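Please review the protein record below. Tell me whether the encoded fold seems credible here:
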Amino acid sequence: MSRVAYVNGSYSPHGEAVVHIEDRGFQFADGVYEVWAVFDGRLADFDGHMTRLHRSLNELRIDIPMSVAALTQVLRETIRRNRVRNGLVYLQITRGTSRRDHPFPHADTPPSVIVTAKSVNLSRGEAQALKGVAVLTQPDIRWGRCDIKTVGLLPNVLAKQAAREAGAYEAWLVDDMGLVTEGTSTNAWIVDEHGKLRTRDTQASILKGCTRTSLMALIAEHGVELDERAFSVDEAKRAREAFFTAAGAFVTPAISIDGARIGDGKPGPITTRLRALYLEQARRDAI
């Protein structure tokens, strides 16, 4: 079956869907995006992603293009037309199309709205989670507003490519103090050498991941002690467990960092438990 995309009010075959050459997302990366996991045709962590979308738009002063109800209908219709039972739906909103110039275009320029959806083989992710994956560290060379989920992802792309060329699944970005900020498309976590569960505070200009937020609520509910505090690469390599979270990765164990084995080189019990708890809740609460 051919895929279908939504672009600015119309559904088109995926291979024929286009935006204008002077769309500001293409010219300036002047836009934001969100990605929802889809379980049984339903959207996971719906409210968290929608809230973050509106925050990102407000921070960049991009007009909200339609109501939550209307946008939800577009997301669901794109999922339906692509017959996605389990997978991902991607939304991108840019400042719209205008003659190329750095200042904002005229206030009546409508934002561009693009939605695509694709199926994902969940069993492949489960197989990776059972084995664990490798992580490579890379310098964090991104701009200072990583709390906004913009489409300007070139530094992330370069770091992810370096990871793949090194045989790793993900790259963890490291600031000038040697502290891990986050992954290229994930939030980073460890169970440190003292058994403390840790992840970096989002006040430090990193993305407030929706999977991260949902997992933190589960952690509190199940009485697991959490320390929102940055950790160094050396601390991560000495950790008992390491993992990362994201809409597509859920909770994925990292069993090595820069070739250094984490713990016993297998997914740890806390990571495994948190993945199971998150997936159970995400499937149950998806709308």
Notes: Residues 269-285 form the longest helix (17 residues). The longest strand covers residues 31-39. Helices lie at 24-28, 46-60, 68-81, 122-131, 154-165, 210-221, 233-237, 269-285.
